[in-house]
Fold this sequence. Notes:
Blueprint: H1 15-18, H2 27-31, E1 38-41, E2 46-52, H3 55-66, H4 81-87, E3 92-95, H5 100-106, H6 110-115, E4 126-128, H7 139-143, E5 149-151, E6 156-166, H8 170-179, E7 183-193
Parallel strand pairs: 2-7, 3-6, 6-7
Antiparallel strand pairs: 1-2, 4-5
Bound molecules: zinc ion (ZN).
Residues 3, 5-6, 8, 25-26, 28-29 line the site of zinc ion.
Amino acid sequence: MRCIYCDKEKKRESLSSLFGKEDLLCTECRKKLPLDRKILHMEDFDVETFYRYEGFFSSLLLQYKECYDEALKDVFLYDLKDYIALRYHGYALAYVPGSSKKTKERGFLPLRGIFSSLGMREVKGLSLKEERIQEGKSREERMKMSANILYEGPKEKKVLIVDDVITTGSSVLGMFRALHPFTQKLRVLCLSRAGEKENAFK
Ligand SMILES: [Zn+2]
């Protein structure tokens, strides 16, 4: 089997490959993607994160999202699946809704591609109040996202909000505010965190 990123032939010697958990990346590429788990403390909730949004991680995520490279979807949760499934047992997943135009252009919802392998139920009934594309917006405009998400689904017991990158935190804050009145337990997970220094969270 070849590495999905650099196409080098992989050695089949790791124990995990024997147990059917073969990494799509070769050892060298995986090394460039170090896990760095960190809990961010927002005003109303905590956010669990696993990578810094920089270097190899950010280029892989961009390649996956912007180049429609669906084959990369299982790279990000490799080695995290069991941990997440255990820690968030019984939770349903809530994805930050994408703008419908973008979703259509891509033909796949990137977040769902990454997280669906966990086998967790998905919360339906989330939408954007207004179509708004986040990228390229000012911080002030992005903060408006926090009042821009609508939930019209049933009451839920345990919900895990998931996103790929946390920057200002406005998207997950919007999700939190929309879902909070309808859920008993609400937690937040973002694969990665961007620009730690200049952000609101500590
Ligand atoms: Zn490689």
